[in-house]
Automatic annotation (TrEMBL):
Organism domain of life: Bacteria
Record's protein name: Uncharacterized protein
Amino acid sequence: MSIRLRQGGLSFYASDGDGAGTVSMEAYFAPGGSRREQMTAAFDAFAEKSGIDTYDRVRLFADTADTVFVPDAVVGDAVPAEWLARMGVHLSPDMKAVRTEAYGGVCALFPVDTGVASWLADRLGHRAAWYSPLHESMAAFRRTEASGDCFVVYPTQENVYISRYGTAGELSLAEVYPLHGAADMVYYLSELAAGERNISLYIYGDRPVRYTDTLKRYFGRVAAI
């Protein structure tokens, strides 16, 4: 099962009982309510919808523009909150800093609501592991035959994750930005590409068609992965 934490709620995803499809559900937090109670209600509702209430492994994704990506070789034993503060992300009293395990040599650090993180730890324990949506797009890129200097773009409901790969397939850039529409994506990519209009763009996710036509007006090679 995968759970995506986003602003104001959760998204659940799991294979159905036959393993032939995917069951999903959106849950939203009510303002002022107990996070623990709302998390319990959301899990129970998803268990009823999916017919599955036990999972051997749960992937937790935090979808937030306050994510900082750091090479595993650099982050070392540094305190996640200190890394975030260095990058201008300061934690409010009700937030805690989380550091993911490295994937592709990259760790993600991000703030998570303390009540939510505590509930997940109590409920899921060692079965759960934290990730960033960027790690999803990195895995998707590795599964393709794409090569050469390129960008991989992963738009979610609220943000866009952008990574750049060199000619040998090495990751050279990883960023996340707030996303309100296709114009935002064009602006971010134009700044990062520094005028390179013929660079290849690969779009990952469940909504690439929404952005493909717009991006093709500005960049020469655009494809979904």
